[in-house]
Specification:
By secondary structure, the chain is α+β, with helices and mostly antiparallel strands. Helices cover 21% and strands 39% of the residues. The protein has six helices and 17 strands. The radius of gyration is 29 Å and the shape is flat. The N and C termini lie far apart (59 Å). The structure holds zinc ion (2 copies). One zinc ion binds next to loops.
């Protein structure tokens, strides 16, 4: 389907501008002048979850392949159905299109970390990895691999009330008589041994959750997307397409209802901890949990992420950096050569020390951790 794309232009020279994480302004790559983005004063609203689910159109997804014509050079190119912002592959001009899903982001966190800073952080991180292949470090030198994405997220609020039934375990000690062998002779001795006294426990814990964040994109694995959290949602800005300029941006491919299932799983972990505190004692068993979720509200928002892929020996590794906080998460390759070499070196050192030490009494002091 044909889509119109827009880009924003420099007030001084008319060239395309991109959002700069360094200044927080739109920057002209041609003449260098910057234009501030004046945020509208609108507050960041929460939306009613149940009402939104009712209003969602029946045909689940509206995403279609997008046929884009560059507003600068006139070339046409294709965008993924879920992409709303990219750069023209021919002239590099930003191309921003419309969101098509039922719910569009009303807020976002702008990029705070530049591509150069992200690259430096990736390189430092890669350098700190033991036994990574050398080509891994070299790969990170090429900055083209590092792409900036605004990834869609849901945030959920809810007042929860959970009733539970379980058992509280209190440890007490009993004196027992045991037979032990001392100096080759059997002896009867008295000892203290722990026992657990279980008593039934039940109750309810109310917890109000605020902005439980759930990734709504499939571009990164859930493990990575969860690991680069937390996000400081007090810094959310009202949505403005100018922030997307120069970056990739996506709209949600994990729906509002599915997203809430993930949010519930995150809330359940916190609820269980609260139940264990409520039961008290030394040990707890939880036998049943029943949670009511009231006053559920949500936001659809965009969070900034730098990410790169690394192919090594037929396997793909992904890295991501939270472009608000700088937190880095990555899958990493291991170099078998380096590991084998380190083991051989360790063995050589051990046998040298063994030889110098003469007999076997020194051996028990060795640990591999020192290498
Ligand atoms: Zn300019
Ligand atoms: Zn172009």
């Amino acid at each position: 389907m044909k889509f119109v794309s827009v880009n924003f232009t420099c007030q001084s020279c008319g060239a395309p501008v991109k959002f700069s994480p360094v200044s927080g302004k739109l920057k002209c790559e041609f003449c260098g002048s910057e234009t501030a983005i004046n945020d509208t004063l609108s507050i960041i609203e929460e939306y009613d979850f149940k009402k939104a689910l009712q209003d969602l159109s029946k045909n689940s997804s509206k995403l279609l392949d997008k046929d884009i014509v560059c507003s600068k050079c006139g070339s046409s190119f294709m965008l993924n159905p879920y992409s709303v912002s990219s750069n023209c592959p021919y002239c590099g001009t930003p191309a921003i299109t419309d969101f098509v899903q039922d719910i569009t982001p009303q807020s976002l966190l702008p990029f705070m970390i530049s591509q150069k800073e992200a690259q430096d952080r990736f390189r430092k991180w890669a350098g700190s990895l033991w036994f990574a292949p050398s080509s891994f470090g070299k790969y990170l030198e090429s900055k083209d691999q590092l792409k900036g994405y605004y990834l869609p997220h849901w945030t959920y609020d809810s007042h929860t009330d959970t009733s539970y039934q379980g058992m509280r375990g209190d440890i007490y000690y009993v004196t027992v008589t045991r037979t032990i062998v001392r100096d080759g002779r059997e002896q009867r001795v008295q000892m203290q041994e722990p026992r657990v006294q279980w008593t039934p426990a039940s109750g309810s814990v109310p917890i109000a959750f605020d902005d439980v964040t759930v990734g709504a994109s499939k571009t990164l694995s859930r493990a990575i997307i969860d690991a680069i959290a937390p996000w400081d949602t007090t810094k959310l800005k009202p949505f403005d397409a100018r922030y997307l300029s120069g970056f990739e941006a996506e709209e949600y491919t994990i729906g509002l209802d599915n997203g809430f299932e993930y949010a519930k799983a995150k809330m359940q972990i916190v609820i269980e901890q609260a139940i264990r505190r409520d039961i008290g004692g030394d040990q707890q068993q939880i036998n049943s949990i029943n949670t009511h979720y009231d006053n559920i509200t949500f936001k659809n928002t965009l969070f900034p992420v730098w990410t790169a892929k690394f192919e090594w020996r037929g396997k793909t590794y992904r890295y991501a950096i939270n472009a608000q906080t700088g937190k880095i998460i990555g899958e990493r390759p291991y170099s078998m050569m380096k590991i084998v070499f380190a083991v051989l070196l360790a063995l050589a050192l051990m046998s040298a020390i063994y030889y110098l030490g003469g007999v076997s009494d020194g051996m028990s002091n060795f640990t591999f951790e020192s290498y």
